[in-house]
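fold-stage: in
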Amino acid sequence: MNVLVTGANGFVGAPLCRLLTGSGMRVRGAVRSPIAHGEFEPFVIGEIGAHTLWHTALDGIEVVVHLAARVHVMRDTAADPLAAFRAVNLDATAQLAEAARRSGVRRFIFVSSAKVHGEQTAKRAYTEEQTPQPRGPYAQSKWEAEQALARIAGNVMQLVVLRPPLVYGPHVRGNFLSLLKAIERRWPLPLAAIQNRRSLLYVENLVDAIARCVAYPQATGTFLVSDGEDLSTPQLVRALASGLSIAPRLLGVPRGLLLLGGALTGRRGAVARLTGSLQLDSSRIRRALEWSPPHPVGEGLAATARWYRQVRDGAAV
């Protein structure tokens, strides 16, 4: 099978290409700039947008896995964040899908985000049947891309949409890396009283799910995907601290006070995500594609902490 993976040398793309190649597939990786090595046939595409020419990259390709995206950022400096997200996550995605359809690609796999459903759950986990209610430009651009892909694919090209929650693992960046640093530096974390539940997804579980979508004959539709074991924020901190072989400094502060502090410091959204719940019901992908995550959450968190220790001991993260 011939597969094109965009963002092939990224956090998710690199282990995915390694897995697909190890399974005997021929993998072509679309990357922004030349790379020295990789587990795929590199194809330099540059910055992607509404006018990217994909026809050469798609020659002979049967399945496209579209990972390249403008990712969620906490402090966006773009003059028009929604326009910036749409340029990559919507316009570039639609351009690729149009080219894939013209080239005879039979299946298009798009990694979206659980954020299209919203930022928090209350009593019930999100399911695929619920109407998306995206909050913020990143989630909005992903939801618009999903709708555009459905129109483009029609009845000609199979479409698979995966909606993961926060993805973690070796080489993670963003807020998860910041949390690792805070735990490792033994900063006091006022999270002991938080009783939330959040779905997470180990990167190796995500790439395994994507690989199943590539190979499974009947793979089509939209799927929420997670590790299947939801954790509270204090449980997450304790698990990472255990992997770092240190005792966490957890303090008990009411959530209301934390939200107030977040509002006063301009970080209410970040505090709300850290202390609120976001749960996914991933039973559909388990049932429809006969898939289950090969790595338990404890194993994934331990591997992430082990990577962090190795990088910390060898070079700055």
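fold-stage: in (second)
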Amino acid sequence: MTGNKRRLAIVVQRYGEEINGGAEQHARWLAEQLRPAAEVDVITTCAIDYQTWANVYPPGESTLNGVCVRRCPVDAARNWAKAQKQTAKLLNRPHTLFDEVAWIKAQGPYSTPLLDYLRQNYATYDAFIFFTFLYATTFFGLPLVSDKALLVPTAHDDPFLHLAAFRPLFHLPQAIAYNTEPERALVERITHNQQVLGNVAGVGVSRPADVSGDRFRARFGIEGDFALYVGRIHESKNVPELLSHFGRFWKEAAESSAHPLQLVLIGKSHLKLPPHPNILHLGFVSDQDKYDALAATTLLVLPSLFESLSMIILEAWLLGVPVLVNGRCEVLRYQCRRSNGGLYYTSYEEFALVLRTLHGSAELRARLGQQGQTFVQCHYQAEHVLKRYHALLDSIIH
């Protein structure tokens, strides 16, 4: 330790204000929140795009919002189309443990300089916090410092969690910070790591001082009611199903002379979006624009099948916005039931019914939004989340 302050390293695959992945935003939030009580370094790669891991940021040391960021180049960019074929081959054919390890390294981001830095600076830090079990930065990095490691797995029930190569990883850290109780139960059921200290820590959210829905509407020229999606516009987030559902919903509503919602999408798109007069894609926007959009929207919609928490839902609830989520995702369904802050669907018919109901009842939206807000204020205030993280770090350091 330096003086009375702990020296902490947060290891994450990507890091920056331009990156809107949930785990990366979680890592950035934690780094900035821990900084007043500890010396925090972020150890990450030079990549921005998770599909290619191409080196974009310059390597070396920089500062972002008071946090020291050490960027290491990725050994080699990956070909996304080739990587998808390799993944399909791994999941659909018999394979060995060595095949799985080779796949983890190939899917990346694999950075020899990052791993060398961890080896050489083991004694420099009191604890290492690793984000996301899935990527090479954690799989190959955590074992190097396992007796000082805290893992934030951000796990959900996808095929990768069931790979044999990942099971020992969940036995190596000294503690694990889960995002929800379903995530913890899932990991323990699959990896049998109950002996590792674990706690549901979550992530903190806070409302900016200046939020304006009118400013958002004026800036982007949006009138009328709209549903909002925020996040990566990608197949892995089940966005194609949302677009299909919404297109069908709008067509049926128009035929019945109803006045349906628009759908506004915020985030980088990896899809060719269909032309539609009531689907508007705004691309990547600033945090301020995101919060202004939440203040303006009628409801937030999240079609994802795989989530370990979803920060955007917590941010919506903090502003009193109701949510509509995919009920096939256990975590999202659990959060809606626990908070009474939103509704969920499992088919198009349920999607259309619930969307129509929410759009038609301002009273219902207000009640759900208020309940969601109360839930977030009780469980996801920054001081409560940080208290849980500090307790886990205490167990590692002392």
